[in-house]
Design brief:
The protein has 722 residues and is α/β, with parallel strands linked by helices. It contains 29 helices and 15 strands. Helix 9 packs across helix 11.
C-alpha cells in the first residue's frame, strides 16, 4: 500500500503535501509549528488537515504492520495462496484483515476442531461439495465410524460434520461482512427496562431512563447521544439492550453468501447448520462488533462536540488588567473570597457566612465592602455552584446599597475543586488549604481563562456530555490536542506564563517548561528570545519549535512580541529597510508597510527578500498588529450589577445570555437566573439546523426569547426564532 497516496486521495490533497508533512513529522515538527511556519512546504495545510493526516498515517501504518504479521503467520502454516495474499494486501480496514485471518488463527479447542481430529473434515466437505448426491447417505456416514477416534455411530459422524461446516461458515469473511451490512441496513436496536433486583443496582443512582424502557429504532438511524444513553443505562443495570432482525431473512442472507446453490440433497442439514452457525458462532460476535461500532461513532461525535466546546471556552477573551475578587459560594462551610491583582497574584482571602445555617448576611456585606475598598476591586467573579444565586443576590444588594460602580459575573467553577486539591495548586499556594484555592482559580479564569484552565484536566471543565462514558484514551488525546492548539494560537507571554501553560507550547514538555520557569526565577525576565538557548535542556530543535509562540513584551527586540519566527527576522529586517521603517516603529507603521507591499506586489517583494509568499503575508499581518491577542475578537462576557430571579421571568421576555454548553439536542444558556435555559435545536434559528455547532459556540452572547417556564422543576425553554 502506498500510504501517502491513499491519504492524499482520502483527504483530497496532493501526494506532495502528504509526503512533506510525513517528513516534517519525522523531523520532530509539531502540528502547530507546521501549520504556522511551514506553509510553503505543505502548501498551506491547516491544523485540522494536519491532524487528519497524522490520524490516517497512524492507522494505515498499523494496518500495514498487521497485514505483514497475518501474512507471515498464514505462510508459516503453508496455507497462503496467491488469491488470499491479494485479498489481505488489498484490504483497507483492520476488520477485513481479521476476517480473512479468522480461519487460520490459532484456536482453543472447539467442537469443530474436535470433529476434525476425529477425521470428519472430508465428510463435511463431501456434504458441501455434492448437492446433487443421489446415493445412500447412511452408507457414506458409515465410512467414518471409527471407535479409536471416538466416532461410534452415524449420528456422531453427522454431528461432527455439522460442527465443522458451522465453523467454516462462521469463518467465511464474505459471509460475516454480508451480515454486518444487513444488520446495519435492516436491523433494529431496542431496549426494555431490566428486571434487576434493587440490591444489584448501583448505589445512589436513579433510573433516569424512562424514555428507553420501551425503545426501538433502526440501527442506521440511531443518534450518537441515544447510543451513549443506552450504553450507560445498560451499564447501570436499568436497561436491557439488544439487536433485533427478521430471523428468516438474515438466515437467507447467510446461506446465500456462503453456498453457491439453493438446492441440495443435504438442504435440511445445511439449513440446520446455517442456523446453528449464525446463532451460536456468528451473531454474538457480530452483535458485539456492531454495538462497538455504534459506540465508536457515538464516542467520536461526543468527543468532537466536547472538543469544540472546550476550544471556545479556552479562547474566551481575558478581562486583563483588572483587580478581581473571586467568590466560591457555599452554605455550611461558608463562601470563600480571594482577591487577585492585575497579574493574577493572590492578595488576600477570607470566608463569609451569609447563608444558612449561619445566616450572617450583614457581616458578609461589610467584609465584601472592606476588601473592595482596600484593593480597589473592579470586578467580582462568582462561581456557579452551590449557593451561587444566593451569593449573587447578596453581591447585587451590596453593590446597590453602597452605590458602587463595579460589576459582577457568574463564572463556571467546574474543575475548581479538582485544581484546588492538585499538586500544582499545592505548589502555587503551599500555605493555603484546598478550600481556599478554588476561589483564586475562579478569579483567575476571568483575568485569563486560557492560562488558568490549562491547569485542570479538560474532562473536569464541564463543557461535555457523557465525557465519562466515551473512550477515555481518544478523549484525552483529542482534548490535549485542543489545548495545545489554543495555547499556540494565542501565544504565551514568556515572562509571566506558568509551567503548566508553557508545557503546552510547541516543542516544550513538562521538564523543559519547569526549566524555563527556574531560569526566569534565577535570572529575572527574558529580554529576548535568544536567551531561551541558555535554558537547561532546551536545544536547537526545541527552540525552533517553540520560539515563535513565546512572546516578550518590552524586550530588546519588538519582533519578539509577535508571531514572527526568529528564522524570519533577517527577511523582516530587509522588508523594513525597503520601507524605511525601523523595528521600533512597527507598532505605528504597520499599515505603511502594507501600503508599500500592495504597491510593489507581494510576489515581487517575496522574491526580493528571499522568502515565501505565505510567510511574507504572515509577517505583514504581525507587523500590522504586533503583540495582538487573537482572543480580543471574541465576544466579551456579560457583566451584571443587578440580579434576575426565575419569578421575574415571563413568556415572551427577551434577554441576552451566554452559551455555557452545547449538546446534540441544543444549547444551555445562562440568562442570569439560577438555572440555565435550554435552547432546543429546533429553536436555534428560523431555518433547519442539523448540528447546534453550526450556529453556536460556547461563550457566544446571544439574544433569546423565553418560550415557557417551569419554576417547580427550574426549567426554562428559550428560542432564537424571529
Amino acid at each position: 500500500m502506498n500510504i501517502p497516496n491513499v491519504i492524499a486521495k482520502e483527504l483530497k490533497i496532493k501526494d506532495s503535501q502528504v509526503l512533506s508533512v510525513i517528513e516534517l513529522f519525522r523531523e520532530g515538527a509539531t502540528i502547530p509549528f507546521i501549520a504556522r511556519y511551514r506553509k510553503e512546504k505543505t502548501d498551506g495545510l491547516d491544523e485540522e488537515q494536519l491532524r487528519n493526516i497524522e490520524e490516517r498515517l497512524n492507522y494505515l501504518t498499523l494496518l500495514e504492520d498487521r497485514k505483514q504479521s497475518v501474512l507471515k503467520s498464514i505462510e508459516e502454516q503453508g496455507k497462503l495462496t496467491d488469491e488470499l495474499r491479494d485479498k489481505i494486501t488489498e484490504a483497507t480496514k483492520l476488520q477485513e484483515v481479521e476476517d480473512l485471518y479468522l480461519p487460520y488463527k490459532p484456536k482453543r479447542k472447539t467442537r469443530g476442531t474436535i470433529a476434525k481430529a476425529k477425521g470428519l473434515e472430508p465428510l463435511a466437505l463431501f456434504i458441501i461439495d455434492n448437492p446433487k448426491f443421489e446415493g445412500n447417505f447412511d452408507e457414506k456416514l458409515a465410512e467414518y465410524i471409527n471407535a479409536e477416534l471416538g466416532v461410534n455411530s452415524l449420528d456422531e459422524a453427522l454431528q461432527g460434520a455439522k460442527d465443522i461446516i458451522a465453523e467454516m461458515i462462521s469463518e467465511h469473511a464474505e459471509s460475516r461482512q454480508a451480515l454486518r451490512e444487513y444488520l446495519f441496513k435492516y436491523g433494529f436496536i431496542s431496549s426494555v427496562k431490566a428486571n434487576t433486583k434493587e440490591s444489584d443496582l448501583p448505589p445512589n443512582k436513579k433510573d433516569v431512563y424512562e424514555i428507553y424502557h420501551e425503545f426501538k429504532i433502526e440501527v442506521s438511524k440511531i443518534k450518537p447521544y441515544q447510543t451513549l444513553a443506552l450504553n450507560r443505562g445498560e451499564r447501570d443495570k436499568f436497561l436491557r439492550v439488544s439487536i433485533n432482525f427478521d430471523n428468516d431473512e438474515i438466515l437467507n442472507v447467510l446461506f446465500n453468501s456462503y453456498f453457491k446453490y439453493k438446492k441440495s440433497f443435504f438442504i435440511d442439514i445445511l439449513n440446520e447448520v446455517n442456523a446453528d452457525s449464525f446463532s451460536r458462532l456468528i451473531f454474538p460476535s457480530i452483535e458485539r462488533e456492531l454495538r462497538n461500532e455504534l459506540t465508536e461513532v457515538a464516542d467520536l461525535h461526543a468527543i468532537e462536540i466536547f472538543a469544540a466546546n472546550l476550544k471556545q471556552l479556552l479562547l474566551q477573551p481575558p478581562l486583563a488588567n483588572k483587580i478581581i475578587m473571586g467568590i466560591d459560594p457555599g452554605f455550611v462551610s461558608g463562601s470563600k473570597l480571594a482577591v487577585i491583582d492585575t497579574t493574577g497574584k493572590y492578595l488576600e482571602g477570607m470566608t463569609i457566612y451569609p447563608h444558612p445555617p449561619q445566616n450572617r448576611p450583614e457581616e458578609a456585606k461589610k467584609v465584601l465592602l472592606a476588601l473592595i475598598k482596600k484593593y480597589n476591586v473592579e470586578l467580582i467573579a462568582i462561581g456557579n455552584g452551590t449557593a451561587s444565586r444566593e451569593t449573587e443576590s447578596l453581591v447585587a444588594e451590596m453593590i446597590k446599597s453602597n452605590n458602587l460602580s463595579i460589576h459582577y459575573m457568574i463564572v463556571s467553577e467546574a474543575g475548581a475543586s479538582v485544581y484546588s486539591a492538585s499538586e500544582l495548586a499545592r505548589q502555587e499556594f503551599p500555605d493555603l488549604e484546598a478550600s481556599q484555592r478554588g476561589n483564586i482559580s475562579i478569579a483567575r479564569r476571568v483575568l485569563d481563562p486560557l492560562a488558568e484552565l490549562v491547569k485542570i484536566d479538560p474532562k473536569s471543565i464541564g463543557v461535555g456530555l457523557y465525557q465519562h462514558d466515551v473512550d477515555q484514551k481518544l478523549l484525552a488525546k483529542k482534548l490535549d490536542d485542543v489545548v495545545v492548539s489554543c495555547v499556540n494560537y494565542v501565544g504565551v507571554d514568556l515572562n509571566t506564563a506558568s509551567a503548566a501553560l508553557l508545557t503546552y507550547v510547541s516543542g516544550l514538555n513538562k521538564r523543559i517548561a519547569n526549566s524555563v520557569v527556574r531560569y526566569r526565577e534565577l535570572n529575572g525576565k527574558f529580554n529576548n528570545r535568544s536567551e531561551l538557548m541558555n535554558v537547561t535542556g532546551l536545544g536547537e530543535k526545541a527552540f525552533e519549535q517553540c520560539a515563535g509562540f513565546l512572546k516578550i513584551s518590552g524586550g530588546n527586540n519588538p519582533l519578539d512580541n509577535t508571531f514572527i519566527h526568529p528564522e524570519s527576522y533577517e527577511a523582516t529586517q530587509k522588508l523594513l529597510e525597503l520601507c524605511n521603517v525601523t523595528t521600533a516603529e512597527i507598532s505605528s507603521k504597520g499599515s505603511y508597510v502594507e501600503l508599500i507591499i500592495n504597491k510593489k506586489g507581494l510576489s515581487k517583494i517575496a522574491k526580493e527578500i528571499n522568502i515565501g509568499e505565505p510567510t511574507l503575508a504572515d509577517i505583514l499581518d504581525n507587523l500590522k498588529k504586533p503583540g495582538r491577542d487573537p482572543r480580543e475578537e471574541m465576544p466579551k462576557p456579560i457583566l451584571r450589577s443587578d440580579i434576575l430571579k426565575i419569578e421575574d421571568l415571563e413568556p415572551g421576555m427577551k434577554l441576552k445570555g451566554t452559551v455555557r454548553n452545547i449538546v446534540d439536542f441544543g444549547a444551555f444558556v445562562d440568562i442570569g437566573v439560577k438555572n440555565d435555559g435550554l435552547l432546543h435545536i429546533s429553536q436555534i434559528a428560523d431555518k433547519f439546523v442539523k448540528n447546534p455547532l453550526e450556529a453556536l459556540n460556547v461563550g457566544d452572547i446571544i439574544d433569546v426569547t423565553i418560550i415557557s417556564i417551569d419554576a417547580k422543576k427550574g426549567r426554562i425553554a428559550l428560542s432564537r426564532k424571529s
